[in-house]
Fold this protein.
Amino acid sequence: MTANDGKVVKLAVDEITALGTDVSVYQALYQRRMAWQFKDEAVPKVALERMLEAAVWAPNHRLTEPWRFFVVNAASPLRHTLGDQAYEVSMERRGDPRRAEASRKSILDAPVLIYIYCVPGTNDEVTQENYASVCCAAHNISLAGVAEGLAVTWETGGATRHPNLKVTLGAEEDWTLATLLSVGIPAESPASFRTPVTNFVYWHE
Ligand SMILES: Cc1cc2nc3c(=O)[nH]c(=O)nc-3n(C[C@H](O)[C@H](O)[C@H](O)COP(=O)(O)O)c2cc1C
């Protein structure tokens, strides 16, 4: 496992060079779709690096920088352990070997897995803010993925619920998993829908 060398380097916003892209913010917002089938093609590391860099520009009250990312590539030896854990949780929950095998396969087949953890705050209020920021960071990854031609699929189900997952990845005991992202070139174009926002908006004018 490699991480940083312990040196904290602060970057100002004007030190960032953003990738030029024809994808507008609105296109990314509306074209982003989660996918469950990926092409058997590698994801360029440079694309992942750009997406992760975009993640940490999520809004973050008090600049606590509460996100921790574990990127597990297809060739990582961890994949088999993670797949076995997904299988075990599914068997425990449903007792159906076929579904458990499908859960293992989804972990083994995703081109890239990113487990995103949230560091707790000094009190409940900060912990809640931290979690909100980490979710925004995960969404930044999803939106940047649109510009990179990649689908980013969230998972918070059984594959993320094994009691040994943190130990397997090297996460701290008091961190909370926000989501597992599967990243790859989509092999499907899933449809989606939303109820018009007018159903949920209360204007005070
Ligand atoms: C917090 C969160 C957790 C999710 N967990 C799962 C999951 O465990 N399994 C799954 O199949 N999809 C999961 N999803 C994906 C949603 O089901 C997905 O957003 C929904 O199908 C709508 O797809 P769309 O965002 O592409 O429109 C999750 C999404 C979010 C935001």
